[in-house]
Amino acid sequence: MWAGRFAKALDTKADDFNSSIRFDCKMYKQDIAGSIAHAQMLAAQGIITQEDCDTIVGGLCNILDDLNSGDLPFDMSCEDIHMFVEAELTRRIGDAGKRLHTARSRNDQVAVDVRLYLRDETAEILTLLKQLIEAITDQAEGNKAVIVPGYTHLQRAQPITFGHHLMAYAMMLLRDIGRLQDAVKRMNVSPLGSCALAGTTYPTDRRMEAAALHFDGITRNSIDGVSDRDFCIEIMSAFALIMMHLSRFSEEIILWSSWEFRYIELDDSYTTGSSIMPQKKNSDMAELVRGKTGRVYGDLMTLLTLMKGLPLAYNKDMQEDKEALFDSIETVKMCLDIFAPMIRTMKVKTENMYRAAQEGFINATDLADYLTKKGMPFRSAYKIVGQIVAECIEKQCVLDTLPMEAYRKHTELFGDDLYSEISLETCVAKRISEGGTSVSSVEAQIAYVRKELEA
Q: Could you please report the per-residue DSSP string of 231-259?
């Protein structure tokens, strides 16, 4: 490839160290698509003949077919996917293949390949995200009136519905979709034509190439065009956030399916047993998702660290972006692909949830609100309710079973409507503020998410 300047061949170990085809071969479809667009532009601009263009495009299409079918194996002696395709093309069509690299460098070639690859993979991840949100929303629909303790500090706090809790994750993942879509908008510009860093003396038409590859425009600075990896870091940051959300959800699934909680039971298809303890049913899929989150974080840190000290323009260090990028893509896809059916098939143990909600004085805030609505300042009501809770703990009862005479020792504001007002059902039903836990509010959240998914 660089014959002429060098007097001897690259050392074998150095060649292996320098090579990237073992991982960048993933981008063969994108590399061929970029090359076809480049050949067609060269012909349109009169830089190569139409005959050569037709021969090149035909050869590239045949190579693509053979790679897709498996008839053509990758030659691991080639340095990268770009040189493999060019070498195979030249072997098949002769000198016309050597003209393809006119007005192009591997620097802008790899930059366009990565953008195309990321665009394709992100589209798949968006589909998987939507499928997971649909599974969550369906579960929320079926459990919109199921009462469960809501937690803060992992302590029982207030009664909510399980559907309300699930919809919190739907909202997180909906934001993830928005982040990915925004990142793709910024990424979807073509660096092709930037060449090594300074552009070219040939009368190229960069916008023609960009349109052929369905880019929204071109990079405006040729140095930035070949040296930018912001778009990778931005996408990988969005991947890290997706994994953080999945990890939080996984943690709750692990807790909920434990014997201590018994709020849900995961389907046998998404759990494992023990080699020694026959009673065990482990939520290993959720645990693995939680574990793989650190891996995606590490991939992001790899790229941030890689780029932080690089002078302009392209540096060989940037070859190290792909393994981390590809790993994060595959990990996110794998986790999303397993998560949606795991959520869709989980069984909700409503009786256990309700029993848990009856304990822990989670209607204490409603008791304070009861006094406040009768005219007592909230802070005064707060103090009285705290005293009542302490009394219940001492008497080993709950707010719902404490006798009326015990309540009225604190204030005569307590009336016959007290017990109905602090029932779990009332506590949930009265939280009608937008975004709250009442059934009508959860239904509104579900409708909003479904509408967003359709859009």
A: HHHHHHHHHHHHHHHHHHHHHHHHHHTST
Token pair 């069509």 in the structure block, residue:
93
Tokens of 60: 């590239």
Judge whether residue 180 has pLDDT over 90.
Answer: yes
For position 91, what pLDDT does the model report? Answer: 97
Angle between helices 81-93 and 28-44 (to 10 degrees): 60
- Whole-angstrom distance, CA of residue 298 vs CA of residue 285: 20
Report residue 273 CA to chain centroid gap: 29
Contact 139, 344 (CB under 8 A): yes
Q: Cα–Cα distances in Å, from 360 out to 117, 136, 324, 430?
A: 52, 27, 46, 20
Q: Contact, 250 vs 290, CB < 8 A?
A: yes
% pLDDT > 90, the chain? 94
Type of residue found at 443: E
As given in the structure block, the two tokens for residue 313 are: 């323009």
Nearest to 300 by CA among 226, 243, 245, 249: 243
84: which 2 tokens? 């493999």
- Each residue of 10-65: pLDDT tens digit? 778 887 888 899 999 999 999 999 999 999 999 999 999 999 999 999 999 999 99
Helix, strand and coil content of the chain, in percent to the nearest 5, comes to 65, 5, 30
List the one residue out of 268, 275, 261, 226 whose CA is nearest residue 357. 261
Q: Using one digit for the tens of pLDDT, what is the confidence trace for 407-451?
A: 999 999 999 999 999 999 999 999 999 999 999 999 999 999 999
Residues forming beta bridges with residue 350, ordered by sequence position:
none
Please report, for residues 144, 164, 344, the alpha-carbon distance to residue 341 in angstroms, rounded to integers and kept in the order given: 20, 20, 5
Q: Across-strand partners of 416?
A: none
Which positions are catalytic?
A: 153, 274
Note whether 243 and 297 are within 8 A (CB): yes
